[in-house]
Amino acid sequence: SVDCSFSRGVCDWKQDADDDFDWNPADRDRGDGYYMAVPAFVGHKNDMGRLKLLLTDLKPKSSYCLIFSYRLAGEKVGKLRVFLANKKTVPVWEENKGKDEKWRTGKIEIFQGAETTNSVTFESERGKGKTGEIGVDNVILISGPCPED
Predict the structure, then answer these.
(1) What residue ranges do the domains of the chain occupy?
(2) Partners of 93 in the β-ladder
(3) Alpha-carbon separation of residue 48 from 34, 42, 77, 134 (angstroms)
(4) Torsions phi, psi for 77 (to 5 deg)
(5) pLDDT digit of tens for each residue in the chain (149 aa)?
(6) Which CATH number is 2-143 given?
(7) What global pTM score does this model have?
Protein backbone atom coordinates (compact mmCIF):
# COMPACT_ATOMS: atom_id res chain seq x y z
CA SER A 1 0.00 0.00 0.00
CA VAL A 2 1.09 3.58 -0.64
CA ASP A 3 0.62 6.20 2.05
CA CYS A 4 -0.44 9.49 0.47
CA SER A 5 -1.23 11.22 3.75
CA PHE A 6 -0.17 14.84 3.87
CA SER A 7 2.08 14.85 6.94
CA ARG A 8 4.38 12.01 5.93
CA GLY A 9 3.15 10.70 2.60
CA VAL A 10 5.34 9.95 -0.37
CA CYS A 11 2.83 11.03 -3.00
CA ASP A 12 2.81 13.94 -5.37
CA TRP A 13 0.00 16.43 -4.56
CA LYS A 14 -0.69 19.49 -6.72
CA GLN A 15 -3.05 22.44 -6.27
CA ASP A 16 -5.10 23.09 -9.42
CA ALA A 17 -4.10 26.46 -10.87
CA ASP A 18 -7.42 26.94 -12.73
CA ASP A 19 -9.76 26.70 -9.73
CA ASP A 20 -11.09 29.40 -7.39
CA PHE A 21 -9.17 28.67 -4.17
CA ASP A 22 -6.53 26.38 -2.69
CA TRP A 23 -6.81 23.65 -0.10
CA ASN A 24 -4.74 24.48 3.00
CA PRO A 25 -3.06 22.45 5.72
CA ALA A 26 -4.96 22.39 9.03
CA ASP A 27 -3.66 21.01 12.33
CA ARG A 28 -5.20 17.84 13.68
CA ASP A 29 -6.93 18.00 17.05
CA ARG A 30 -4.47 15.57 18.59
CA GLY A 31 -1.55 17.57 17.27
CA ASP A 32 -0.04 14.68 15.26
CA GLY A 33 0.47 16.24 11.87
CA TYR A 34 -2.09 17.92 9.66
CA TYR A 35 -4.81 17.34 7.08
CA MET A 36 -5.93 19.37 4.07
CA ALA A 37 -9.00 21.55 4.46
CA VAL A 38 -11.19 24.18 2.88
CA PRO A 39 -12.82 26.43 5.50
CA ALA A 40 -16.48 27.26 4.78
CA PHE A 41 -15.83 31.00 4.56
CA VAL A 42 -13.32 30.76 1.68
CA GLY A 43 -14.54 31.96 -1.71
CA HIS A 44 -18.12 32.42 -2.87
CA LYS A 45 -21.01 29.99 -3.27
CA ASN A 46 -20.30 27.37 -5.96
CA ASP A 47 -16.59 28.25 -6.15
CA MET A 48 -14.35 25.20 -6.57
CA GLY A 49 -11.03 24.15 -5.08
CA ARG A 50 -9.22 21.14 -6.51
CA LEU A 51 -6.36 19.14 -5.06
CA LYS A 52 -4.83 16.57 -7.40
CA LEU A 53 -2.99 13.40 -6.47
CA LEU A 54 -0.62 12.36 -9.26
CA LEU A 55 -0.34 8.60 -9.65
CA THR A 56 2.72 7.66 -11.63
CA ASP A 57 3.40 4.01 -10.87
CA LEU A 58 0.03 2.29 -11.23
CA LYS A 59 0.21 -0.87 -13.32
CA PRO A 60 -2.26 -1.22 -16.19
CA LYS A 61 -4.88 -4.00 -16.03
CA SER A 62 -4.86 -4.08 -12.28
CA SER A 63 -7.24 -2.87 -9.58
CA TYR A 64 -6.60 -0.53 -6.69
CA CYS A 65 -8.53 0.85 -3.77
CA LEU A 66 -8.24 4.48 -2.71
CA ILE A 67 -9.16 4.87 0.96
CA PHE A 68 -9.39 8.28 2.59
CA SER A 69 -10.79 10.06 5.61
CA TYR A 70 -13.10 12.99 5.02
CA ARG A 71 -15.20 15.41 7.00
CA LEU A 72 -17.95 17.82 6.03
CA ALA A 73 -18.46 19.92 9.15
CA GLY A 74 -20.93 22.78 9.34
CA GLU A 75 -24.35 23.72 8.04
CA LYS A 76 -24.53 23.87 4.20
CA VAL A 77 -20.75 23.63 3.96
CA GLY A 78 -20.77 22.43 0.34
CA LYS A 79 -19.77 19.30 -1.55
CA LEU A 80 -16.75 17.05 -1.74
CA ARG A 81 -16.26 15.14 -4.98
CA VAL A 82 -13.60 12.78 -6.27
CA PHE A 83 -12.74 12.48 -9.96
CA LEU A 84 -10.48 10.00 -11.72
CA ALA A 85 -8.37 11.45 -14.53
CA ASN A 86 -9.82 9.32 -17.31
CA LYS A 87 -13.43 10.14 -16.28
CA LYS A 88 -13.08 13.88 -15.84
CA THR A 89 -16.69 14.93 -16.19
CA VAL A 90 -18.43 12.54 -13.79
CA PRO A 91 -17.38 12.22 -10.16
CA VAL A 92 -16.75 8.66 -8.98
CA TRP A 93 -17.65 9.71 -5.42
CA GLU A 94 -19.61 12.62 -3.93
CA GLU A 95 -20.79 13.70 -0.49
CA ASN A 96 -22.72 16.85 0.26
CA LYS A 97 -23.44 16.91 3.95
CA GLY A 98 -22.10 15.57 7.17
CA LYS A 99 -24.45 14.23 9.83
CA ASP A 100 -22.05 15.57 12.44
CA GLU A 101 -18.47 16.83 12.74
CA LYS A 102 -17.00 13.29 12.70
CA TRP A 103 -14.44 11.96 10.26
CA ARG A 104 -15.71 9.22 7.97
CA THR A 105 -14.01 6.84 5.55
CA GLY A 106 -14.45 6.93 1.79
CA LYS A 107 -13.41 4.11 -0.54
CA ILE A 108 -13.11 4.17 -4.31
CA GLU A 109 -12.26 1.25 -6.58
CA ILE A 110 -9.86 2.17 -9.35
CA PHE A 111 -9.84 -0.39 -12.16
CA GLN A 112 -6.93 0.00 -14.53
CA GLY A 113 -8.06 -0.97 -18.00
CA ALA A 114 -6.39 -0.09 -21.26
CA GLU A 115 -6.17 3.50 -20.03
CA THR A 116 -4.27 4.09 -16.84
CA THR A 117 -5.70 6.42 -14.24
CA ASN A 118 -2.83 8.83 -13.67
CA SER A 119 -4.47 11.16 -11.17
CA VAL A 120 -7.24 11.49 -8.61
CA THR A 121 -8.77 14.91 -7.92
CA PHE A 122 -10.45 15.94 -4.68
CA GLU A 123 -12.81 18.81 -5.48
CA SER A 124 -14.44 21.01 -2.87
CA GLU A 125 -17.46 23.08 -3.87
CA ARG A 126 -18.31 25.97 -1.62
CA GLY A 127 -21.82 25.91 -0.12
CA LYS A 128 -23.96 28.63 1.48
CA GLY A 129 -22.67 28.04 5.00
CA LYS A 130 -20.27 30.38 6.80
CA THR A 131 -18.93 27.97 9.42
CA GLY A 132 -17.21 24.60 9.33
CA GLU A 133 -14.92 23.08 6.74
CA ILE A 134 -14.40 20.29 4.26
CA GLY A 135 -11.39 18.16 5.17
CA VAL A 136 -9.48 15.24 3.65
CA ASP A 137 -6.81 13.13 5.35
CA ASN A 138 -5.16 9.69 5.54
CA VAL A 139 -5.21 9.03 1.81
CA ILE A 140 -3.96 5.49 1.15
CA LEU A 141 -3.77 3.50 -2.06
CA ILE A 142 -3.74 -0.28 -1.83
CA SER A 143 -3.55 -2.79 -4.65
CA GLY A 144 -6.49 -5.09 -5.12
CA PRO A 145 -10.21 -4.52 -4.52
CA CYS A 146 -11.49 -2.42 -1.61
CA PRO A 147 -11.85 -4.42 1.61
CA GLU A 148 -15.30 -4.92 3.12
CA ASP A 149 -15.91 -3.01 6.36
Answers:
(1) 2-143
(2) 82
(3) 22, 10, 12, 12
(4) -75, -25
(5) 788 888 777 788 999 999 999 999 998 877 778 999 999 888 899 999 999 998 877 777 788 999 999 999 998 999 999 999 866 678 999 999 767 889 999 999 988 776 777 889 999 999 998 889 999 999 999 999 998 87
(6) 2.60.120.200
(7) 0.91
